[in-house]
């Protein structure tokens, strides 16, 4: 027996998938394929570690929503928030204590912007790979104010 299932949605990563690490553009063939999916009524969802505010390179694509910040933020194309799951303050503080103890660079994106506790060779490499400027260096524990600043 053959079971026919209609595809209702397709999910795509950004960095290294829709955007090449070399050219940082979406190839025309990919744009055409996504447009064809959309014309067929298939929802296109972007799934990425980036935030919805940090996706200018794909603005020409016919996507319907974004699962951003590794799943902590889900928004529709028109900006409507479907869900947001911020990191609890006490978890963030504990995480930063461990990062300091083990000298780990941490980059966070919150409602106040993108910040990093230190710039390392790996941070510089990642910024180059995704063609984004280096985040501002800050004491991350000082920018996360409970009730005011959310960290994702």
What does this structure look like?
It comes from Bacteroides muris. InterPro entries: HAD-like_sf, HAD_sf. Keywords: Hydrolase. Helices cover 25% and strands 20% of the residues. It starts with 8 loop residues before the first strand and ends in a 9-residue tail after the last helix. It has 152 residues and is an alpha/beta fold. The model has no long low-confidence stretch (mean pLDDT 88). The protein has four helices and eight strands; from the N terminus they run E-H-E-E-E-E-H-E-E-H-E-H.
Give keywords.
single chain, 152 residues, alpha/beta, Rossmann fold, Hypothetical Protein, Haloacid Dehalogenase-like Hydrolase, Chain: A, domain 2, 5-stranded mixed β-sheet, 3-stranded mixed β-sheet, 4 helices, 25% helix, globular
Describe the structure in brief.
Helices cover 25% and strands 20% of the residues.
Topology:
Layout: E1 9-12, H1 28-39, E2 43-47, E3 65-68, E4 73-76, E5 81-84, H2 89-101, E6 107-110, E7 113-116, H3 121-129, E8 136-137, H4 140-143
């Amino acid at each position: 027996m053959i079971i026919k299932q209609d595809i209702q949605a397709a999910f795509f990563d950004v960095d290294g998938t829709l955007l090449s690490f070399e050219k940082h553009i979406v190839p025309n063939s990919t744009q055409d394929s996504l447009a064809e999916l959309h014309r067929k009524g298939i929802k296109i969802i972007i799934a990425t570690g980036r935030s919805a505010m940090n996706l200018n390179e794909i603005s020409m694509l016919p996507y319907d929503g974004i699962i951003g910040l590794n799943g902590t933020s889900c928004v529709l194309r028109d900006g409507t928030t479907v869900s947001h799951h911020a990191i609890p303050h006490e978890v963030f503080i504990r995480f930063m204590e461990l990062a300091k103890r083990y000298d780990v660079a941490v980059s966070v994106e919150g409602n106040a912007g993108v910040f990093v506790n230190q710039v390392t060779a790996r941070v510089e490499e990642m910024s180059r790979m995704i063609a984004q400027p280096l985040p501002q260096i800050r004491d991350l524990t000082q920018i996360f104010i409970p009730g005011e600043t959310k960290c994702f």
